[in-house]
Design a protein that fits this description.
The chain is mostly beta strands. It is built from no helices and 16 strands.
């Protein structure tokens, strides 16, 4: 059982922010002569949408007793439970549950994550704020739609990756490849890398499109669990940043026929 006492591994966090957003639209007109050479340019300010104000307040309980390896945590646990309210021009609130667990079984590390993010309230699905998006590769790899085989026609639309409620699960087998002798298969003082075999799963939906537990799409309105698997290589660049090229197979969107390469620029979760 965990103690309720606050310590170096468990804490409360809170925040308050005030934001003002505004828009400007300029139209540039470029003029050419009969030979196609530019002879001038003018700029015209056009009408733009009205700006808006937001006030946001949040509170979170955070637990973290994990130990970091060369590119990602390798042992322990991390979690964050948060609620945030937004008011002003738009009104909604969000809830976040983010739990991660790591097991170090030398020489590999097993990593698991459960992530749930939700928006509720009057403007949560108004279309005036950007919806939650499942296809970001730091959530589920292989569904970002930026790569893949050109001759494959996807059955998945971008709307089926967006919504106001989102659940993600991830599992990885992390193999320290190069780095300190105590952690890695190959000793290196300069090159710190991990190889990871991953399996990602996620589901996104809203009040108009409810989740369905089935394997394949039957219509463009379906919101079903999406899964992918693959391999990645995380490289720690001199402690400044972690780069993760990966190869992902989207199991609900063509499988090997639509497998693709991608890249993340963040440490392993």
């Amino acid at each position: 059982m965990c103690s309720s006492d606050l310590s170096t591994t468990r804490r409360f966090e809170s925040g308050l922010s005030l934001s003002r957003y505004s828009y400007r639209i300029d139209r540039f007109n470029t003029y050419y002569d009969d030979l196609g050479f530019g002879i001038g340019q003018t700029r015209e300010k056009l009408d733009a949408p009205d700006g808006f104000n937001l006030v946001q307040a949040d509170i979170a309980y955070v637990f973290d007793n994990s130990f970091f390896g060369v590119t990602a945590p390798m042992q322990g646990a991390r979690s964050r439970y948060q609620i945030m309210g937004t008011t002003g021009s738009y009104n909604y609130f969000t809830t976040l549950l983010d739990y991660r667990k790591y097991f170090f079984i030398k020489p590999v590390s097993l990593a698991f994550r459960f992530y749930n993010y939700n928006r509720f309230g009057r403007d949560a699905e108004s279309g005036r704020i950007v919806p939650l998006y499942l296809g970001y590769p730091y959530l589920i790899r292989g569904y970002d739609g930026t790569s893949g085989k050109r001759n494959y026609v996807s059955a998945l639309t971008i709307n089926q990756l967006a919504g106001s409620r989102l659940v993600v699960t991830n599992a990885e087998i992390r193999i320290p490849l190069t780095g300190p002798r105590k952690l890695s298969l190959i000793k290196s003082k300069f090159l710190f890398t991990d190889i990871a075999l991953f399996f990602d799963g996620g589901l996104v939906w809203d009040s108009q499109h409810h989740p369905e537990l089935k394997w394949q799409f039957t219509s463009s309105d379906d919101r079903i669990p999406l899964f992918s698997g693959g391999i990645s290589l995380r490289v720690n660049i001199f402690g400044y940043m972690v780069v993760e090229p990966f190869y992902a197979i989207p199991l609900q969107d063509g499988g090997f026929n639509n497998a693709s390469f991608g890249i993340n620029f963040i440490p392993g979760w």
